[in-house]
């Protein structure tokens, strides 16, 4: 497809995959040259994981074919792909934690003694040599789980390449690695490439992509957006492609239900969060919200937006950092403490973290407020009904009755029930994680209008949304996150797609060179 | 762009299988009664019903607590051991009177419940494993306390607890009925009861809604153990002896069966108190029917197994993924 002289070792042609009527991939082409490091990027739902699963035989494509070394191949199951030389390293290491590193490397193909027993000595010697050859220094006799996550991943990698791999697919390989381990990984990747092994590298970390990869393929909504040399591609353009924009064309306003004018805000912030830090998730994030303000959190997938909201809501333990409301410190890591202070979170995954499916609409609405709608520990149906009626009218919740099981409602109405649950607590600050995901257009407009209205009534709102228009038009101010840290803050008129993308594509410092810097070494 | 969810007409699972899940146990109860009316001599006699009710009390009281625990998506295998512990401590304290002896038996239950609940809520051990430890260890402790001796109870106050009647109804049946009403009130109209059901329905959501999830879990196991120790006291009073080696043997299985047959799903999020009561009665009546027709005990176990399979099969319809 491009001016590629090397024959592609792995190729996908016109891959289409449909899941229950939803096209996860439509006619996607992908070509991987020998010894090439190829970045595969895209936002949520772009089809990256589906493509990987097609390449590794987990899914069968509905249309199109996979070619390995020029030959069309159809992998019935993942093991076939592995035996054909395609290995995958997942984020979560899928090895056996109680076995030694050496046993894991040679699992299922252990060297034997002349009596047919496992030759442990030979196995350990071979494993040590193999790991040494990649510059990985681990004790191969130790159980895998006693090794660091990075070392575990290296063992997985060693296992993969020792099974005669021609292609290694790495899915977010650095997400839980220390900077020093990241360096080792990059060195291993370089050695693999020297041996002609091709790498598919999936990551959200822009800087890593530019350091490791020579080619890039961008997917969006199941379609191929771009493929080519990475070095030629300006970062801004890459970000724009991932978000489905071109740098020249920017959409006008008025797509959402958010009002045009900024909300009138008090001067003093209601909520201040400082130094929010949790290893591998977020690093020294700070934000503040004033009453009547909608603060948007910008960033790509994996930038730490949801984690930041969880940290503020007490739903994620913190290594460091504090949240205060009206100047008063809120006990960190405690959801009840945050709720008492008036900080509430609408979680991203409504089904898993929001609704109680077997309970009625009424019981879901009053869930958090139950103690205050009770007398001497007995629930008061009268008090509940008053709250539920008000909420259902105000939020236009469509249900046959308050007693209908919440699981039977549409996504939009379930989301309104979740919002009602929190409004019943009269919160000061509302943290909204993807409030309009997976709900129909009408409900989406209603939810957006409601956010606007709540802000006008003086609530502080923090908004996370993967839909650009929503954050850009909804937010009065925006904090931009990248790799778990704040990289920019945009105010009022500055909140535009150009500024956001510029902030997202700035270069940040890569992990330092080997021989870790002092502050890393001292980290406990 | 996220996919648009069109409001579809809710397809209620409350078709035949839904109806069976909720009311099946009552229907089965009626069927068993009718069969006995037709084929069993002297079944419909006041004395017979009195015997059946008296016999069902221990399982029923234990099942009430089990229903609470199962409602949290848990299970408690240690209930039989708790009964044994209660039985073991009673003779030691009976010298101080019935009230102290019963109180100590309840304290034994309280301690077991706290240990179970604490291990499950704070350490995160799976309920089946945590309570298995005390199922084995608790009975061991009971045997150590009792010196593996059967102790006859001479105290008339305690013995009369097993034989007394209130308005012609055995006292222990009245106690069981009162406990059932209390548990029903707890589940249906207290803050705690609704929180328990919410924790069982979606624990993560309950946590994120600020519910005191750990406290709810611990309380459920404490209540379950307390009810089991009451069953233990009743067992001792009825037998007129403390026999920790056999009291409450395998009662956890009967209790779980009663709860499941009564329509409470093992996946938590619901507690059917009256279904549990009916489930316990159903098991008791089936047992009695088979005995009256001289069917060997081994067959009645097979029948129990079939009932469990049917109950689980009926429940399986829930939670179909679209």
Automatic annotation (TrEMBL), chain A:
InterPro entries: AAA+_ATPase (IPR003593), ABC_carbohydrate_import_ATPase (IPR050107), ABC_transporter-like_ATP-bd (IPR003439), ABC_transporter-like_CS (IPR017871), P-loop_NTPase (IPR027417). The gene is rbsA. GO terms for cellular component: plasma membrane. This is Sugar ABC transporter ATP-binding protein. It holds the Pfam family ABC_tran. The keyword Nucleus does not apply. Residues 10-246, 267-508 form the ABC transporter domain. Its main location: membrane. GO terms for molecular function: ATP binding; ATP hydrolysis activity. Keywords: ATP-binding, Cell membrane, Membrane, Nucleotide-binding, Repeat, Translocase, Transport. It is found in: Cell membrane. The keyword Transcription does not apply. It is a peripheral membrane protein.
TrEMBL record, chain B:
It comes from the Bacteria. InterPro entries: ABC_transp_permease (IPR001851). Pfam families: BPD_transp_2. The chain crosses the membrane at residues 20-39, 51-71, 166-187, 218-237, 298-315. Keywords: Cell membrane, Membrane, Transmembrane, Transmembrane helix. The keyword Cell membrane applies. GO terms for cellular component: plasma membrane. It is a multi-pass membrane protein. The keyword Translocase does not apply. It is found in: Cell membrane. One of its GO terms (molecular function) is transmembrane transporter activity. This is Sugar ABC transporter permease. It comes from Marmoricola endophyticus. The gene is rbsC.
């Amino acid at each position: 497809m491009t001016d590629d002289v090397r024959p592609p070792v792995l190729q996908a042609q016109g891959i289409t995959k449909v899941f229950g009527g939803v096209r996860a991939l439509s006619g996607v082409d992908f070509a991987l040259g020998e010894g090439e490091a190829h970045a595969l990027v895209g936002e949520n739902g772009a089809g990256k994981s589906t493509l990987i699963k097609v390449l590794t035989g987990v899914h069968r494509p509905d249309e199109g074919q996979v070619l390995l070394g020029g030959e069309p191949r159809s992998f019935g199951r993942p093991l076939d792909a592995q035996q054909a030389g395609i290995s995958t390293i997942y984020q979560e290491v899928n090895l056996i934690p109680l076995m030694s590193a050496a046993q894991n490397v040679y699992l299922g193909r252990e060297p034997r003694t002349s009596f047919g027993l496992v030759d442990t000595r030979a196995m350990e010697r071979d494993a040590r040599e193999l790991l040494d050859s990649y510059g990985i220094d681990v004790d191969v006799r130790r159980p895998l789980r006693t090794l660091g996550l990075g070392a575990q991943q290296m063992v997985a990698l060693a296992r993969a390449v020792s099974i005669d791999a021609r292609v290694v697919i790495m899915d977010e390989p650095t997400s839980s690695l220390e900077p020093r381990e990241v360096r080792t990984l990059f060195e291993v990747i370089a050695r693999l490439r020297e041996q002609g092994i091709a790498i598919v590298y999936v990551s959200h970390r822009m800087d890593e992509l530019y350091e490791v990869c020579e080619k890039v393929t961008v997917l969006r909504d199941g379609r191929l957006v771009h493929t080519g040399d990475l070095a030629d591609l300006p970062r801004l353009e890459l970000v724009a492609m991932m978000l489905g924009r071109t740098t020249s064309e920017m959409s006008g306003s008025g797509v959402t239900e958010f009002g045009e004018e900024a909300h009138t805000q008090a001067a003093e912030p209601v909520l201040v969060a400082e130094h929010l830090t949790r290893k591998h998730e977020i690093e020294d994030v700070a934000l503040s919200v004033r009453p009547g303000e909608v603060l948007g959190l910008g960033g790509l997938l994996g930038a730490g937006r949801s984690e930041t909201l969880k940290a503020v809501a007490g739903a994620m333990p913190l290594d460091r950092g504090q949240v205060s409301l009206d100047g008063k410190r809120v006990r960190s890591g405690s959801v009840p403490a945050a709720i008492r202070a008036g900080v509430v979170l609408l979680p991203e995954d409504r089904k898993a973290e929001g609704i109680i499916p077997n309970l009625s609409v009424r019981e879901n609405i009053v869930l958090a407020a139950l103690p205050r709608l009770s007398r001497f520990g007995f629930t008061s149906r009268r008090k509940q009904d008053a709250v539920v009626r008000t909420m259902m009218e105000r939020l236009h919740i469509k249900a046959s009755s308050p007693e209908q099981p919440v699981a039977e409602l549409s996504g939009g109405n379930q989301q309104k029930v979740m919002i009602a649950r929190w409004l019943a607590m009269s919160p000061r600050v509302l943290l909204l994680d993807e409030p309009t995901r997976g709900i129909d257009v009408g409900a989406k407009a209603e939810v957006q209008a409601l956010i606007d209205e709540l802000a006008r009534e003086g609530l502080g709102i923090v908004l996370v949304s993967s839909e650009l228009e929503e954050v850009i038009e909804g937010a009065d101010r925006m904090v931009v996150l990248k790799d778990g840290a704040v990289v920019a803050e945009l105010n009022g008129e500055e909140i535009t797609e150009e500024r956001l993308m510029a902030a997202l594509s700035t270069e940040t410092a890569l992990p330092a060179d080997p021989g870790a810097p002092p502050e890393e070494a001292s980290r406990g | 762009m996220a996919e648009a969810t069109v409001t579809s007409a809710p397809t209620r699972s409350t078709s035949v299988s839904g109806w069976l899940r909720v009311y099946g146990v009552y229907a089965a109860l009626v069927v068993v009664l009718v069969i006995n009316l037709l084929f069993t001599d002297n079944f419909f006699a006041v004395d017979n019903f009195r015997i059946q009710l008296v016999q069902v009390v221990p399982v029923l009281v234990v099942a009430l607590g089990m229903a609470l625990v199962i409602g949290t998506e848990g299970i408690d295998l240690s209930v039989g051991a708790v009964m044994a512990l209660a039985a073991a401590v009673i003779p030691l304290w009976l010298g101080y009177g019935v009230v102290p002896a019963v109180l100590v038996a309840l304290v034994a239950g309280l301690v077991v419940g706290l240990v179970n609940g604490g291990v499950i809520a704070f350490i995160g051990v799976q309920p089946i494993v945590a309570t298995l430890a005390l199922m084995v260890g608790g009975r061991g402790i009971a045997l150590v306390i009792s010196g593996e001796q059967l102790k006859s109870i001479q105290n008339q106050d305690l013995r009369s607890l097993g034989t007394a009647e209130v308005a012609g109804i055995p006292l222990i049946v009245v106690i069981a009925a009162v406990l059932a009403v209390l548990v029903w009130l707890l589940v249906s109209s207290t803050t705690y009861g609704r929180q328990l059901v919410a924790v069982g329905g979606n624990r993560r959501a309950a946590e994120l809604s600020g519910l005191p999830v750990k406290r709810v879990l611990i309380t459920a196991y404490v209540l379950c153990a307390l009810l089991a120790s009451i069953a233990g006291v009743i067992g001792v009073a009825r037998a007129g002896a403390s026999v920790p080696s056999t009291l409450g043997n395998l009662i956890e299985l009967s209790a779980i069966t009663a709860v499941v047959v009564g329509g409470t799903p093992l996946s938590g999020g619901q507690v059917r108190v009256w279904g549990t009561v009916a489930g316990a009665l159903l098991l008791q009546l089936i047992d009695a029917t088979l005995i009256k027709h001289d069917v060997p005990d081994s067959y009645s176990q097979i029948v129990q197994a079939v009932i469990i399979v049917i109950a689980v099969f009926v429940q399986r319809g829930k939670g179909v993924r679209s």
